[in-house]
Design brief:
The complex is a heterodimer.
Chain A (H helix, E strand, L loop, with lengths): L7 H4 L3 E3 L3 H18 L5 E7 H10 L1 H9 L12 H7 L3 E6 L10 E8 L4 E10 L2 E9 L2 E3 L7 E6 L4 H14 L2 E8 L4 E7 L5 H10 L3 E3 L1
Parallel strand pairs in A: 2-3
Antiparallel strand pairs in A: 2-4, 4-5, 5-6, 6-7, 8-10, 8-11, 9-10
Chain B lengths: L4 H11 L3 H13 L3 H23 L14 H10 L7 H18 L3 E3 L9 H12 L4 H21 L4 H4 L5 H15 L4 H14 L16 H20 L8 H14 L16 H11 L4
The chains are: A alpha+beta, B mainly alpha.
Protein name (chain B): L-serine dehydratase
EC number (chain B): 4.3.1.17
Cofactor (chain B): [4Fe-4S] cluster
Amino acid sequence: MRNNYKSVFDIIGPIMIGPSSSHTAGAVQIGRVANKLFETIPPKVTVHYYGSFAQTHRGHGTDYAIAAGIMGFPADDSRVPLAPTIARKRGMDLRFVEEVGESPIHHPNTAILKMTDGTKKITVAGCSIGGGAIEIRAISLNGVDILPAGPLPIVIFRDYSKKMANALAINADLEEKAPFTRRQVLRAGNCDIYVYDIQNKMQPDTIDYFENKYPNIICL
Amino acid sequence: MYESVRDLVHVAEKREKALSELIIEEECHDSGISRKKVWQRMRINLLTMQNAIKQGETGDGVRSRTGLTGGEAIKLKNYRERGKTLSGDAMMAAVENAVATNEVNAAMGVVCATPTAGSSGTLPGILFMLEKRLKLTEEQMIRFLFTAGGFGLIIANHAGIAGATGGCQEEVGTASAIAAAAAVEAAGGTPEQSSHALAIALSNLLGLVCDPIAGLVEVPCVKRNAIGAGNSLIAADMALAGCTSAIPADECIVALDRVGRSMSAELRETGIGGLAGTPTGQAIKARIFGKNL
């Protein structure tokens, strides 16, 4: 049994603006992950679509959904259908590319977002698996390629001081409050990156706790 | 989380508890959220569904931006008022609710995905008909949603709930099956009968392709939800009558997954095959998006 869906609210829900939970609500979520990873609204974004996303993004409103997510809007925000216009008014250079051929992360609903502000470059590869749920299967951050298991939540901690003590503290804290199934440690030029695949959904107060306590932590 | 339908039914029988109760307990356990909050969240989902139906059934109804869908919930409402439906008023009330919801979805209104937006009409279609027919309380309606959600989780984790991976059988098929299982509980049936209703409903929509015209969630999606609602009611009634599925529910779910995997990409939400590939389907696409698509 796969464990992609963790809550009855993945089945009954989300509450959303139509028309498609996978191509609209899920696409908003992929955009929101991109927003969290970039830690602000990125000035330039190129979205590469594969499979069903490439074939049907216009009909499904996937473009406005991704744009809405990049700006941090939730899936039921009434601004969702107007998001590309809002993004361009804010000066964002937003492009959509329909790719042919197999998705690099092997799912028919794939969007790969390449974001940059000229110096910082972050890439996130997400797929929308149905009913608004998404997986993040690849991230490029601080020049390092990260391959999480896919299902959210994923916690990423960047330790610029490179002290093992920080990692031990966060490990223990996560084990108590948000148990993880896998941990990866990656070495970037200027930091150590810890990636945790979290078992159950994280509640907003748990996310607040970690974000307040640890600098440079991202809870996806 | 329950591993299988068999597991869920077994625990319900052994502990003599309602399926909805087990699923509420499980949700609280897995998420760490209080029962009160979990209940309240589901109540908001229920109210969202109710609002969507109301929007689609009021005045002239809604119209999508493309003009492909809308207004047919009103036609159904007027037809029902004449009192001469062939399949009976309960059936057509469910169909009207289902169509209203998906018309609102196509018109970019607010819906609650059950399990997906494309299949968001099937389950509320039945639920709000049963509200009147069985005089369900709000508590019973919320329990209906938990039961459906619990069965839906098992299907989602063993097969899928996306047209792009498994066709419409995973969207409207799943919606129809989980609504049938929940309807049996609401009508006072046993957990075992719920599992048969799920199996019967899923079996009947096995192989249903996802072929949206112009890649929009309009044609045939809106009417597929009407059929999903009808199929669900038939399956629930059959199970309540004591009819059984020869193939156990869990094996039907495996079949759903295998059939989905063997569908060609043209039939999995690419807007290429099936109805989308017909001359009229292609002409509509050209009219909406221009010929270069």
